[in-house]
Design a protein that fits this description.
This protein has 418 residues and is α/β, with parallel strands linked by helices. 44% of the residues lie in helices and 17% in strands. The chain contains 15 helices and ten strands. The strands form two sheets. The protein has an eight-stranded mixed β-sheet, with helices on both faces. A two-stranded antiparallel ribbon has the order 9-10. α1 crosses α2 and α12 packs antiparallel against α13.
Length: 418
């Protein structure tokens, strides 16, 4: 019920945020015009340089809205990236059956379905790449007949798509026997999602379960495979259960650092906390082509791990990374201030708290907080301690301050970070 509720909430609450348009594409391969439904992310017109992963939907007539809703919902909470969706209309004149028809003996595309395969490969994808700002990461999804057809793109030596969402596929002859070898021998990273339900069509379900049994034996490090068998769901309702689960499988590495990731992968490190953060975002960029600043919440997670393990020198590297991602903000100065404070070098800590005071606020870091921290630390070295004189009288000792501490009204010149 969790996935079903998520999909409904996404569709009804956030579908208005998507920019959806219908275009008529004149296909030479199909020798006809075919409607395409294009859903652009909310930020598409605001950020003219940003690129987005591509999701191609077979059965776009009815899969567009649930996929769009789930992606908008996920991106609202910063769990899923924004994605460009292109749905292919297949609901007229028995199109989906002719588009996905196969030879009954070989189980391979024939006639019109060969043309449909070429339409996607040679016309649709090049057009999208030319007209829209898409990354090289491509996903394809379908349901029953179209879910089995999308597997044919895996038959190529270099598969056209990077991720496959197969919702209750209705396999042609021999496909469940062929698929394991294809995925086992793949030399490129692939995501494959497969689902069925206890209320699915009996013959289809048996073959899907058989395929899952065989796929689970594959030991291919380049294959990211997930199977789900939903309880109390039908051939149709399993779609709403599957969509968010499939998307979260594909984009799991792009999610913010979770409590589980922090506890099992980060705080347990002996060193290299900042390097872990760099690698996480390198993987996001290399896998999906997504170039986003590192999340503030992820900076704070790494900071927490550094502090918990008392590896304070790593805060210097974290400050450099902060300045690279948020050059106008106080985040980098804050990390340096924390470092010097923990190392009990309070004069330098004050310097960086006040340097940050003169920069832009970010997240929960405010000017008031930076100023208050500086004033609090000043008290630790501004007092003049008393010492005993030769005659037993108390005299004030002169205290030498290493460097002049700036005030809120006097901007500092930032020293080289070491």
């Amino acid at each position: 019920m969790k996935h079903l509720l998520l999909a409904f909430l996404a569709f009804f609450s956030f579908s208005c945020l998507a920019q959806i348009k219908t275009i008529s594409f004149n296909s030479e391969k199909l020798k006809e015009k075919r409607d395409l439904f294009v859903s652009l992310p909310a930020s598409y017109e605001k950020n003219k340089t940003k690129q987005y992963p591509l999701l191609v939907l077979l059965d776009g007539d009815y899969l567009l809205n649930p996929f769009t809703g789930a992606l908008i919902y996920g991106s609202y909470w910063d769990d899923l990236p924004e994605v460009i969706i292109v749905g292919i209309a297949q609901n007229k004149n028995d199109q989906r059956n002719t588009d996905c028809g196969v030879d009954p003996v070989t189980g391979m595309p024939d006639g019109k379905s060969v043309d449909f395969f070429d339409f996607i490969s040679l016309e649709l994808i090049p057009m999208i790449q030319k007209e829209y700002r898409v990354t090289n990461f491509k996903i394809i999804a379908g349901h029953d007949t179209t879910a089995s057809f999308l597997n044919f793109f895996l038959y190529k030596d270099r598969p056209l798509f990077d991720a496959y969402i197969s919702l209750s596929p209705e396999f042609p002859v021999n496909m469940e026997q062929t698929m394991p070898d294809l995925l086992a021998n793949s030399k490129t990273p692939l995501f494959y999602y497969l689902s069925t339900a206890d209320g699915d069509e009996k013959k289809m379900r048996e073959r899907i379960l058989n395929l899952d049994t065989n796929l689970k034996t594959i030991k291919n490090p380049d294959l990211n495979y997930k199977f789900e068998d939903f309880k109390e769901a039908s051939h149709y309702s399993l779609v709403l259960h599957s969509i968010p689960s499939a998307l979260y499988q594909i984009f799991s590495v792009a999610e913010p650092i979770s409590v589980l990731e922090y506890k099992t992968k980060i705080v347990t490190l002996k060193e290299g906390y900042v390097e872990y953060l760099k690698k996480k975002y390198d993987i996001i960029e290399n896998s999906f082509g997504i170039k986003n600043p590192i999340r503030i919440s992820d900076f704070k997670a790494i900071e927490a791990a550094i502090l918990e393990n008392k590896d304070y020198n790593e805060l210097d590297a974290l400050a450099i990374l902060a300045d690279k991602n948020y050059p106008k903000s106080m985040l980098g100065d804050y990390e340096l201030a924390i470092m010097f404070e923990k190392k009990q070098d309070n004069p330098r800590a004050v310097r960086y708290y006040m340097s940050g005071f003169n920069k832009e606020e970010i997240a929960d870091l405010t000017k008031d907080m930076m100023f208050a921290k500086a004033e609090e630390l000043k008290k630790t070295f501004a007092k003049k301690p008393k010492i005993k004189g030769k005659v037993g009288q108390d005299t004030e000792a002169k205290q030498e301050v290493i460097e002049e501490t700036p005030t809120a009204d006097a901007p500092v010149t930032e020293e080289k970070k070491q």
